TrEMBL record, chain A:
Protein's name according to its UniProt entry: Bifunctional protein FolD
Record-annotated Tetrahydrofolate dehydrogenase/cyclohydrolase catalytic domain positions: 7-120
Family matches, as CDD domains: NAD_bind_m-THF_DH_Cyclohyd
Role, per record: Catalyzes the oxidation of 5,10-methylenetetrahydrofolate to 5,10-methenyltetrahydrofolate and then the hydrolysis of 5,10-methenyltetrahydrofolate to 10-formyltetrahydrofolate.
Organism of origin: Sedimentitalea todarodis
Catalytic activity: (6R)-5,10-methenyltetrahydrofolate + H2O = (6R)-10-formyltetrahydrofolate + H(+); (6R)-5,10-methylene-5,6,7,8-tetrahydrofolate + NADP(+) = (6R)-5,10-methenyltetrahydrofolate + NADPH
Entry annotated with the keyword tRNA-binding: no
Domain spans labelled Tetrahydrofolate dehydrogenase/cyclohydrolase NAD(P)-binding: 139-285
Assembly information from the UniProt record: Homodimer.
Keywords for this protein: Amino-acid biosynthesis, Histidine biosynthesis, Hydrolase, Methionine biosynthesis, Multifunctional enzyme, NADP, One-carbon metabolism, Oxidoreductase, Purine biosynthesis
Pfam families: THF_DHG_CYH, THF_DHG_CYH_C
The enzyme's E.C. designation: 1.5.1.5, 3.5.4.9
Domain of life: Bacteria
Automatic annotation (TrEMBL), chain B:
Family: Belongs to the tetrahydrofolate dehydrogenase/cyclohydrolase family.
Taxonomy of the source species: Bacteria, Pseudomonadati, Pseudomonadota, Alphaproteobacteria, Rhodobacterales
EC number(s) recorded for this UniProt protein: 1.5.1.5, 3.5.4.9
Protein name (record): Bifunctional protein FolD
Alphabetical list of Pfam families matching this protein: THF_DHG_CYH (PF00763), THF_DHG_CYH_C (PF02882)
Residues bound to NADP(+): 166-168, 232
Length: 292, 297
């Protein structure tokens, strides 16, 4: 990691987790509830996320309750259990792992999680707060991207940001968060006529599309910051598989001012922002008198 | 070239006629009369005018209009109790609380007490989030009106470059979400934007909602672009008296643009038409009926 142009996600992760740990320690053993992770049905990919989150929670000094609900559980039963957790003072935050089985309506369950316990920022009311510029409890990947842009030291006010990809959990909330910080944001997507026309003007380009090496150096303004959210598995001619982002990192590195590597960029920060959201949830629950 | 003038007054009348037709169907085929409740607290003269004209137009399209006028010193608890009653009233499909509320009330709290499904203004925080993530929601009236005008003029907006000037919660932000929903490439520009002229010059669609009289000059406009002017500003006339102008300098922009909305008579009349459309949409959803075509986002 000698190259100063590579934004080191692992270092940011450690910093944030230390901040969270300091917050938890400052409670001096005062009660703080547990994070509950809900996985519905067995899914090896989900299990990887959950393990990562459990590690993050352990580093931050937060209790992490991994629940695995059976594949045959009904929507009503899920809702009932979530409602119970909303009322349980020992539950600090609720994480609903995705994907869920086909018969489960994930949006309806996300809406059932109380906004004060919505550490993933997925309830419509949580997203509404982001749109209205209250960005403290934001979807984790979007928050991680903003964190890494701040890591460059660039002043966000008046900054030209181009967001490539307008997904509900990354692109749209990240665009709103950056606008709240004073950036001029352009959102591009698969119907955009010329992405390059927009991205070449940008001080910061964020890419969340899911196509390996979509963004080459010809699309980047010299000195710009490039935040790569893509995680794509590619198979080399020799049959070996590796993970790459949406950006042709090596080529873009020659022209960009900063770039997040994949892996090791946005990914590690995402779990840390989840833990930071837990502390925000705690503060808000205290503020409204849910807990003391 | 000279821009085509988009006649908001005429288009709003068309929208109201569509709503009226759908309402007649609902009554005839299902025995359902859509109802809009408007709550006014206090005696702000401008608000009284709005509420009166909303009530009048609601009845004109065949809907039931419920007006609730409360004293300026009504307590927040009393207002919240009224909203709860309206939330539970099956004859009420849309609820609108006229803003601004008196200083002793928390507007956010009041608005968020409205059942999101009956939130005719689309200001409830859950509707904001639903729109923000591209889900089905109740949509704020002014940006919905702008969207309808753009669709009417262009057909498909897919792939067009749109620039929204202004990032207000009631116009700029929802406008940007709606344009994204119609597959535009969207830039939201605002007071912090460095080179506003250059950003606006790239746009096929410009929506101006900043509240600054005649801020956008014609040389910011790409030839042939469509200009939607949401601003309504009163300025002094050189010969004395005042007049209404928009956020764009109409004469110079009209000389370059392909189409432009005038002020007054552009976006303004669409707002109430969209309030009626929203009430109809809420009524259809509440009764499990198909949503009215062309009247929703």
């Amino acid at each position: 990691m000698g190259d100063h142009r590579l934004l080191n996600g692992k270092a940011v992760r450690v910093r944030i987790l230390n901040e969270v740990k300091a917050y938890v320690d400052s409670l001096r053993g005062g009660p703080i509830g547990r994070l509950v992770s809900i996985s519905i049905g067995d899914n090896p990919e989900v299990a990887v996320y959950v393990r990562n989150q459990a590690r993050g929670a352990a580093a931050a000094g937060l209790r992490f309750d991994q629940q695995l609900w059976g594949n045959e559980i009904t929507q009503e039963e899920c809702k009932r259990l979530i409602t119970e957790m909303n009322d349980d003072p020992d539950v600090l935050g609720i994480i609903l792992q995705r994907p869920v089985p086909d018969h489960i309506h994930v949006r309806s369950l996300q809406s059932a999680i109380h906004p004060l316990k919505d550490v993933e920022g997925m309830n419509p009311a949580s997203i509404g707060n982001i749109v209205y510029s209250d960005v403290a409890l934001a979807p984790c990947t979007a928050a991680a991207s903003v964190e890494l842009i701040k890591e460059t030291g660039l002043n966000l006010k008046g900054l030209e940001v181009v967001m490539i990809g307008h997904s509900e959990i990354v692109g749209k909330p990240a665009a709103m968060m950056l606008m709240a910080e004073g950036a001029t944001v352009t959102v591009c997507h698969h119907m955009t006529r010329s992405v390059a026309m927009h991205s070449r003007r940008a001080d910061v380009v964020i890419v969340a599309v899911g196509k390996a090496h979509l963004i080459g150096p010809e699309m980047i303004k010299p000195g710009a910051a490039v935040i790569d959210i893509g995680i794509n598995q590619i198979v080399a001619p020799d049959g070996s598989a590796r993970i790459v982002g949406d950006v042709a990192t090596d080529e873009v590195l020659d022209i960009a001012g900063w770039i997040t590597p994949v892996p090791g960029g946005v990914g590690p920060v995402t779990v840390a922002t989840l833990m930071r959201n837990a502390t925000v949830a705690h503060e808000r629950q205290l503020a409204v008198g849910w807990i003391s | 070239m000279t821009a085509q003038i988009i006649d908001g007054k005429a288009f709003a009348a068309t929208v109201r006629a569509q709503v009226k037709e759908q309402v007649a169907h609902l009554i005839a085929d299902h025995g359902i009369t859509p109802g809009l409740a408007v709550v006014l607290v206090g005696e702000d003269p401008a608000s009284q005018v709005y509420v009166r004209s909303k009530g009048k137009m609601t009845t004109e399209v065949g809907m039931a209009s419920f007006e609730h006028k409360l004293d300026v010193d009504t307590s927040e608890a009393e207002l919240l109790a009224l909203i709860e009653t309206l939330n539970n009233d099956p004859a009420v499909h849309g609820i609108l609380v006229q803003l601004p509320l008196p200083g002793h009330m928390n507007s956010d709290l009041v608005i968020n007490a409205i059942n999101p499904a009956k939130d005719a203004d689309g200001f409830h925080i859950s509707n904001v989030g639903l729109l923000g993530t591209g889900q089905k929601s109740m949509v704020p009236c002014t940006p919905l009106g702008c969207l309808m005008m753009l669709r009417d003029h262009h057909g498909s907006l897919s792939g067009m470059n749109a620039v929204v000037l202004g990032r207000s919660n009631i116009v700029g932000k929802p406008m940007a979400q709606l344009l994204l929903g119609d597959s535009c490439t969207v830039t939201i520009a605002h007071s912090r934007t460095k080179d506003l002229a250059a950003v606006v010059r790239g746009a096929d669609i410009v929506v101006a909602a900043v509240g600054r009289p005649q801020m956008v000059p014609g040389d910011w406009i790409k030839p042939g672009a469509t200009v939607i002017d949401v601003g309504i500003n009163r300025i002094d006339k050189p010969e004395g008296g005042t007049r209404l102008v928009g956020d764009v300098d109409f004469d110079s922009c009209a000389a370059v643009a392909g189409a432009i909305t005038p002020v007054p008579g552009g976006v303004g009349p669409m707002t109430i038409a969209c309030l009626l459309a929203n009430t109809l949409t809420a009524c259809c959803r509440a009764n499990g009926l198909q949503e009215p075509e062309g009247l929703t986002a």
